Amino acid sequence: HVQLVESGGGLVQPGGSLRLSCAVSGYTYSGYCMGWFRQAPEKERERVARMNGDGSTNYADSVKGRFTISQDYAKNTLYLQMNSLKPEDTGMYYCAADGWCGGSWVFNYWGQGTQVTVS
User: Which residues, listed in sequence order, are joined to residue 93 by a DSSP beta bridge?
Assistant: First the structure.
């Protein structure tokens, strides 16, 4: 039974920063594929960042150079550091987990989301 709980969202000015956290329980995420997604109202969910089991990362072009995904394995926590935020970054952010990372971003476990508003 895997649970993911996001936190850290809020209202921030353009150019500001936020760090999102995703607490993972049920089992340790070491070796798992972990990802962040976001969704604006009436828009499709989009990929943001992914960390593979080997520690390598993937980022959406829109966030490269501004966002950083990381993990604290001791705390079973996934992070998304967001810098130089833009209004178009606004949305509900979700963390996700799966047993492996492939060519497609497929995840079996999802958190409830945390709202990020840049205005």
Answer: 38, 114
pLDDT at 29 over 90: no
- Are 78 and 94 a contacting pair, CB within 8 Å? no
- Residues 51 and 34 sit within 8 Å (Cβ to Cβ): yes
Residue 33's nearest CA partner among 3, 7, 71 is 71
Report which of 66, 65, 79, 78 is spatially closest to residue 118, judged by C-alpha positions: 66
Residue 80: band (very low, low, confident or very high) from pLDDT cuts 50, 70, 90: very high
- % of the chain at pLDDT higher than 70: 96
Report the Cα 80 to chain-centroid distance in Å.
5
DSSP state letter for 26: S
Q: Which residues contact 51 (CB under 8 A, 6 or more apart)?
A: 33, 34, 35, 57, 69, 70, 71, 78
Please provide the DSSP assignment of 40-90 as one string.
-TTS--EEEEEE-TTS-EEE-TTTTTTEEEEEEGGGTEEEEEE-S--GGG-
